Amino acid sequence: MAVHRRTDAKWNRFTAGRSAFVRFVAGLVVLTGTTGWAGATQAAVGGERGVREVPCRAGELSAAVSRLDAGRRATLQLAAACTYTLDLSSTATGGTPTVTGHLTIVGNGATVIGSGAATPGCSGVLRVAPGGSLNLVDTTVTGGDTTDCDGTGNREDGAGILVDAGGTARIERTVITHNKAGGSGGGIANFGTTTIVNSTITSNAAAGSGGGVYQGAGQLSVVDSSIGQNIARTGGGLAIVGGQTEIRGGTVRANAAGGDGGGVAASGPTTSVTINRAEITANISGGGGGGISNWQAASFTLDESRVSHNKARANGGGVQIMNSPMLIDRSRISANVTTRNGGGIASRAPSQPVEVVVRSSTISLNQATGAASRGGGLFNDGSRLRLTKDLVTLNVSRLPAGGVDNTRGTVVLDKTAVLFNLPSNCRAVLFCA
Asked: Rounded to whole angstroms, what are the CA distances from 151 to 122, 154, 183, 197, 225?
């Protein structure tokens, strides 16, 4: 009997504890207004931590974004493969839906179309305000049009996504396509902190700079992404005019600029750029730098990358360097074409000498095709150019030299081979004929 009494006592304690737990859960249900575990996560968008499924209906996404209060957190789950056309009448301001809190959008392959697709004017697709943050995953962003803003400032930039100073965005496994900016940044304009990962930015346009991406200030990181077939006045793929930019992996392909930088255009005394393990190819510029234009940037490093098959009407079929230091390390500059000087690389420093270093790289098969063109491989005018452990070969220009042409400045060859270039290997370079 003693054994039975001990067992009964344990059972009583267990049932008493279970009853208390049940009462606790029941009270929680009453307080939250939910009737199950699934419902407990379906909090309103304005809540601190909520997940909301956005129905596949016009205006639903615009309204959901506008209801997120500043500083609050929410996650929006979009319907798989749905197309959401933004309805500006559903937003608080009647303009581009603006993220003021901390918002995650899980697209599930959905497409978000800006109202500018139907009514051209001044409507981007998404904007991240100062203090806000956006985490955008697995979504297509299209149809932003800011070509008729009548001088209203930053609203002209970033037709797809605009990140204001103090705003933060992470864009992952997302497609940004067919957006048109009246200012800069057809696809994305960043003035805050933006990270782009495993994404595609294609077929966007800007009347100003940065057909695909415009980096105005702050920090920009582009990782294993594709930027292609975008057009702009300068920087067809990317235009970088301030802040810190890092590109790791991925491609910048088949972009076009009316001026400098068919692929990438960097400029400005506060601009720092690092490109690592990327491919810059098949871009076209109406000015200099078919692949890359580095115009008075504070620092620019190109590392373990390939710049190939780009074309420029002005200097630098592959890379144009103007009054700016630059390091090209462990890279290949090949098969680029210019109708001026420097089929592969053109470095000019008309005001004061700058240091340009090319190290452990190959410069080959580039052409300078104009009637007065020089420097099929490299053209130097005023820089202090140092080539260390490089191979310069099979480059062609109309006038000497086909390999390395030094019009003005200094060129130092350190363990570098300059071979089989036409019509000659070097001009005005010590120890190279």
From this structure: 10, 9, 9, 32, 32
φ, ψ for residue 23 (rounded to 5)?
-65, -35
Residue 130 CA to residue 128 CA, distance in Å, equals 7
- Indicate the DSSP class of residue 63: H
Q: CA 251: distance to chain centroid? A: 11
Give the bridge partners for 209, in sequence order. Answer: 234
Regarding beta strands 226-228 and 396-397, do their DSSP bridges make them parallel or antiparallel, or are they unpaired?
A: unpaired
Closest CA to 309 of 379, 233, 371, 255: 255
Q: Considering the entire predicted model, what is its pTM?
A: 0.87
Contacts of 136 (CB under 8 A, 6+ apart): 104, 105, 107, 126, 161, 169, 170, 171, 172, 174
Residue 155, Cα to own-chain centre: how many angstroms? 19
Q: In what order do the strands lie in the sheet with 256-257?
A: 145-146, 180-181, 205-206, 231-232, 256-257, 284-285, 311-312, 337-338, 367-368, 396-397
Q: Residue 235's closest CA among 290, 176, 177, 300?
A: 290
pLDDT in tens, 336-379: 999 999 999 999 998 888 999 999 999 999 999 999 999 999 99
Q: Which two tokens stand for residue 141?
A: 């962003």
User: Of 372, 417, 423, 361, which is closest to residue 393 (Cα–Cα)?
Assistant: 417
Query: Which amino acid is present at 78?
Result: L
Q: Which regions of 43-192 does DSSP assign to beta strands (E)?
A: 51-54, 73-78, 83-85, 98-99, 102-113, 126-128, 133-142, 145-146, 161-163, 168-172, 175-177, 180-181, 188-190
Closest listed residue to residue 238, CA positions, set 210, 260, 259: 210
Distance from C-alpha of 257 to C-alpha of 204, rounded to nearest angstrom: 12
For residue 138, the number of C-alpha atoms closer than 13 Å in the C-beta half-sphere is: 12
Question: CA-to-CA distance for 405 and 397, rounded, in angstroms?
Answer: 10
CA separation, residue 336 to residues 56, 223, 252, 306, 369 (Å): 47, 25, 15, 11, 11
Quick one: how far is CA 12 from the chain centroid?
64
Q: What is the pLDDT of residues 82-95, one digit of tens each?
A: 999 886 654 444 46
Nearest-angstrom CA–CA distance, 55 and 82: 9
